[in-house]
């Protein structure tokens, strides 16, 4: 499984983000490309501990039991549910959102795995730094495939 903390995996993700255009169309889902970038950026705020949403009761109940879906080798399915705090419905500006996401990803990687060891995922609960790195890559890969890159 790829990990965003590995330089070559990070550069691959950045290259794919750079291949998006304002006209990139989704293969599934309701977000446009700018909204998807904002969604991924909001997830980075969670992964970095900048924003720590409250855990939903369902996540507390089953999250720890199913958390391997976020870091195993099996791709996420189209239309996989997200945490409410990361749902983006308002219009966003493509270039701004792309730049913000790349900035946050570089900061996340530069901060290193140890910076994501002390906060909970809003659904899955406690993740190790390796699981955060793999989960971040997998989430980004899922959405970049959604837009064909």
Automatic annotation (TrEMBL):
Organism this protein belongs to: Paenibacillus gyeongsangnamensis
Pfam families the record matches: DUF1569 (PF07606)
Protein name: DUF1569 domain-containing protein
Domain of life, per lineage: Bacteria
């Amino acid at each position: 499984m790829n990990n965003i903390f590995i330089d070559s995996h990070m550069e691959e993700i950045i290259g794919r983000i750079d291949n998006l255009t304002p006209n990139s169309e989704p293969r599934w889902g309701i977000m446009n490309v700018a909204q998807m970038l904002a969604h991924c950026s909001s997830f980075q705020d969670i992964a970095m501990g900048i924003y720590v949403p409250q855990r939903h009761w369902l996540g507390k109940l089953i999250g720890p039991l199913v958390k391997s879906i976020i870091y195993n080798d099996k791709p996420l399915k189209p239309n996989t549910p997200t945490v409410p705090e990361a749902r983006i419905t308002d219009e966003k500006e493509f270039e701004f959102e792309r730049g913000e996401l790349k900035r946050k990803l570089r900061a996340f990687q530069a901060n290193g795995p140890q910076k994501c060891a002390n906060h909970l995922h809003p659904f899955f609960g406690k993740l190790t730094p390796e699981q955060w790195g793999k989960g971040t890559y997998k989430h980004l890969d899922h959405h970049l495939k959604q837009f064909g890159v």
